[in-house]
């Protein structure tokens, strides 16, 4: 899960940059999520795994399309912002899966 989280974070940073959003503020390096959700285990871990798969399925074609637009020298800002908003919402939902004590750290 840690590798997938890191990969999605890196892809999210690219989308944020294309959208003109401060990428580090947009997705801080909260690499503790995979470990914390693994410690939580059970339904939280299972749901987080499914949500990460869903997020990857959404991001892959979206990022590919944005990069194709950008490679043609066209402005990808508006569609990147729309994708970024979806990514940010999905990330926020994932973080709510953490138990309160883990989220407070």
Topology:
Blueprint: H1 2-19, H2 23-26, H3 32-40, H4 42-71, H5 77-95, H6 100-103
Helix pairs in contact: 1-4, 1-5, 3-4, 4-5
Note down, in words, how this protein is organized.
The protein has six helices and no strands. With 105 residues, the protein is mainly α. The chain has one domain. Helix 1 packs parallel to helix 4, helix 1 (2-19) runs antiparallel to helix 5 (77-95) and helix 4 packs antiparallel against helix 5 (77-95). It is elongated, with a radius of gyration of 14 Å. It starts with a helix and ends with a helix. The model has no long low-confidence stretch (mean pLDDT 91).
Shape: elongated
Coarse structural class: mainly alpha
Q: Count the domains.
A: 1
Give the biggest sheet. none
How far apart are the termini?
Answer: 20 Å
Give the helix tally. Answer: 6
Strand content: under 5%
Radius of gyration: 14 Å
Instruction: Please count the beta strands (DSSP E, at least 2 residues each).
Output: 0
Enumerate the spans where pLDDT stays under 50 for 5 or more consecutive residues.
none
Series of H and E elements:
HHHHHH
Mean pLDDT: 91
Percent helix, as a range, is over 70%
Short summary of the structure?
α1 packs antiparallel against α5, α3 packs antiparallel against α4 and α4 packs antiparallel against α5. This protein has helices at residues 2-19, 23-26, 32-40, 42-71, 77-95, 100-103.
